[in-house]
Specification:
Radius of gyration: 19 Å
Number of domains: 1
Number of strands: 5
Number of helices: 5
Order of helices and strands: HHHHEEEEEH
Oligomer: single chain
Strand content: 5-15%
Shape: globular
Strand order of the largest sheet: 1-2-5
Largest sheet: 3 strands, antiparallel
């Protein structure tokens, strides 16, 4: 198989992260705002991913029947958060990505401090190689998180004891880098 172009792979992963964050917001909107997206936007438009995860963990404490599921979703997304930030905010070059066994390079632009007995050092992050397999793995991890959210939304919609009004969205997104005729 020829590697998809760097921009195609990058675009699919960026889009998947957007879907994931949107689905998390849909879950929070259904829980807190009776699915009123206009009211929810006043509270959630400037919120960051980590802030939304804190809200989800608070819902876990409030809704004991869903505590494990909410915490699981938060844990899955938290495990993706640093990778997501590097992916979205890192400095990318396609390097040899379009060649067989090729890769892209991403550099973390954050300045990091380290210290030992002999020295103190400030440096920006090292460049990291990202292969097509790495992009595919990221897509599958994002898919799993999105499916977990979708599953809980469906369960909440069918729970007569919950006053949840939401909707699922996961079914229309492709989580592979294969062309449509290969799936």
């Amino acid at each position: 198989m020829t590697n998809p172009t760097f921009y195609e792979a990058f675009g699919k992963v960026a889009n998947a992260f957007s879907w994931l964050e949107g689905d998390l917001r849909r879950l929070l909107t259904g829980m807190a705002f009776d699915n009123d997206f206009v009211v929810a936007s006043a509270f959630l438009d400037s919120s960051q991913l980590r802030g939304n995860l804190r809200v989800l963990r608070k819902f876990a404490r409030i809704h004991h029947d869903y505590e494990g599921k909410f915490k699981n979703i938060a844990k899955i997304i938290e495990n993706l958060a640093d990778r997501r930030n590097l992916f979205i905010h890192g400095l990318w070059t396609h390097a040899t990505f379009d060649e067989p066994e090729g890769f892209a390079l991403v550099r973390d632009l954050k300045i990091k401090f380290s210290e030992d007995e002999k020295s103190r050092t400030w440096a920006n992050g090292q460049a990291e190689k990202v292969s097509i397999a790495d992009f595919s793995k990221m897509l599958l991890e994002i898919r799993d998180a999105t499916y977990a959210i979708d599953s809980v939304i469906k369960e909440l919609e069918n729970d007569m004891d919950m006053e949840f009004s939401g909707f699922s969205s996961v079914t229309s997104f492709r989580f592979t880098l294969d062309s449509p005729d290969q799936n």
